[in-house]
From TrEMBL:
<feature type="transmembrane region" description="Helical">
    <location>
        <begin position="25"/>
        <end position="44"/>
    </location>
</feature>
<feature type="transmembrane region" description="Helical">
    <location>
        <begin position="130"/>
        <end position="149"/>
    </location>
</feature>
<keyword id="KW-1133">Transmembrane helix</keyword>
<feature type="transmembrane region" description="Helical">
    <location>
        <begin position="201"/>
        <end position="220"/>
    </location>
</feature>
<dbReference type="GO" id="GO:0016020">
    <property type="term" value="C:membrane"/>
</dbReference>
<protein>
    <submittedName>
        <fullName>Steroid 5-alpha reductase family enzyme</fullName>
    </submittedName>
</protein>
<keyword id="KW-0812">Transmembrane</keyword>
<keyword id="KW-0472">Membrane</keyword>
<feature type="transmembrane region" description="Helical">
    <location>
        <begin position="51"/>
        <end position="73"/>
    </location>
</feature>
<dbReference type="Pfam" id="PF06966">
    <property type="entry name" value="DUF1295"/>
</dbReference>
<dbReference type="InterPro" id="IPR010721">
    <property type="entry name" value="UstE-like"/>
</dbReference>
Amino acid sequence: MLLFVAMLAVALVFSAVGFKKYVWFISIGYGLSIAAIGVALLIAAREQLTAGIVCACILFIAYGIRLGGYLIFRELRSSSYNSKMKTEIKSGDGMSMVAKCAIWITAALLYACQTSPVIFRIANGSGSDTLLIVGMVISLVGLLVESVADLQKNAAKKVNPGRFVDTGLFRIVRCPNYFGEMLFWTGVFVGGITICADPLQWIVALLGYLGIIYVMFGGARRLEIRQNKSYGDDPEYQRYVKTTPIMIPLIPLYSVEKYKWLVA
């Protein structure tokens, strides 16, 4: 578990940007932490690198740079987004240091757990196998889905900023970026199924996977509540939400608003 502890330390360092603005613990700090873990694993495993491990780490780096870059750009360039979020997300100015530290540590631990299937593969000297390749393909598809979804949403909002987005991937599922996120981490988890050496590693990997799935559904609930307030009186929006799954294509789950235990 030494390598896992080292990657937790990396996540703690890079997610510490949240002390500037507490929501960054789970946004910009998230992207930076995953990218940094990818780089740190390449360095830590430099004497036992295989093509599969290199590709897995590169996926972490690409994922983190894409997410972190997108969020930083949105923070710096989107005044409309920032003004809207001020009314929906607490600033954290009155939050105690103890509370901030609790969020920081919990978030960093989640990031380390999410990446743990690759961490344990390196620590256990497992090299590459077929399941790792399968997992990376799933992750790559997920990365492409969420990247395309973000581009399509930005393009649609430029054309009609006051309307909900129901074009492109949003025709298939209402939260394609969250679906892509779940696909990415499903691939990471699948790629590590064969390499966990003991129950503790299994528990850590499972906690990371279930944790990010919970966060994504919580994010979908928060988005649904926000969109219902903005577009709830629009008949087209009502038809859209009643016929388009909220999280997973073809799965007839159309709303998560009533599930109050989904807090994100």
